[in-house]
Amino acid sequence: MEKKQNPNQRMLINIGLALCGFVAGSVVWGPASDLFKSNQSAKEPANERMIEQFNRLIREPQANQSAGLVLTEQDKELIGKTAAQYLIDHPENLVEAGKRLESNRDGEKMSNVVNTKDVLLESTYTPNYGPDNADVAVIEFFDYMCHFCQQSSPVLEKAISANKNVRTFFKDFTIFADRTPISGMGAKIGLYIFRTYGQDKYYEFHNKLMNETGIALQSKKDYSPQNLATLVHGLGYKDILDEHGNFLLTAQLRDQLQNVLDANMMLADKLNYSGTPVFIIMNIKNPQNKTTTIIPGAPDSYRLQQAIDKAKDN
């Protein structure tokens, strides 16, 4: 039960807990008349005196402090020692503070997502698959050379197949571009196919490349630009790469596609995403914190379906 305190008491407690690196709002005071009690006060006279001095400091009016509470260095030292002893006696409050801090961070992340919904749900340059009037969006930040993205691909396919009222947005987040050319090349080709041939052709290419790169990585084999060219030619696209994996697209067009990738990197940075995959599941028509889910890493089918069902519940 929280004990009501006057402003001077609250200031002292806040300072004391801040000195210990603790969040004052997470402390629940006991029913005793004094704000602090030691579990071992009978055995530790020095600690008892320190606590009594602190309680007296709180209770006694400060006649010469009309402008507010002024603390001496001795007062501050006393507060720090007393608050430290309290946390030693009540370590469960540190756990509670950690939970509250994590909860606050999660709420902030959700707010950032909801506030950037227009960018996340942009559909002209972002490859997407599903009905225009869908109620739920699944947004994935991914890289074609990311093992966990490859692992997530069949899970996402299953969810898309089972939920006809879901629209999936594919945000290329090319974090492996400095390690392998396939990261950036695959992303640009996907953007080009979506822009030129539409969502069905894009979805076919996307799943095919995810599958092939996944098999190569699992087999510890290199996936080369020539492999990518074979895939693209096999799907019937002769205008993108030559047989050696060199781009046939103009430099100007490739720059335009790179601009989309750069914008995705900036968006991911704004949302504090540094790895792949990241899934965001939200209601399209009325996105709210309470119905939005962020899943960092590869989800299983159950977890992804739970998030979709939650987003429907508006």
TrEMBL record:
<dbReference type="InterPro" id="IPR001853">
    <property type="entry name" value="DSBA-like_thioredoxin_dom"/>
</dbReference>
<keyword id="KW-1133">Transmembrane helix</keyword>
<keyword id="KW-0812">Transmembrane</keyword>
<keyword id="KW-0614">Plasmid</keyword>
<protein>
    <recommendedName>
        <fullName>DSBA-like thioredoxin domain-containing protein</fullName>
    </recommendedName>
</protein>
<feature type="transmembrane region" description="Helical">
    <location>
        <begin position="12"/>
        <end position="32"/>
    </location>
</feature>
<dbReference type="GO" id="GO:0016491">
    <property type="term" value="F:oxidoreductase activity"/>
</dbReference>
<feature type="domain" description="DSBA-like thioredoxin">
    <location>
        <begin position="138"/>
        <end position="231"/>
    </location>
</feature>
<dbReference type="Pfam" id="PF01323">
    <property type="entry name" value="DSBA"/>
</dbReference>
<keyword id="KW-0472">Membrane</keyword>
<dbReference type="InterPro" id="IPR036249">
    <property type="entry name" value="Thioredoxin-like_sf"/>
</dbReference>
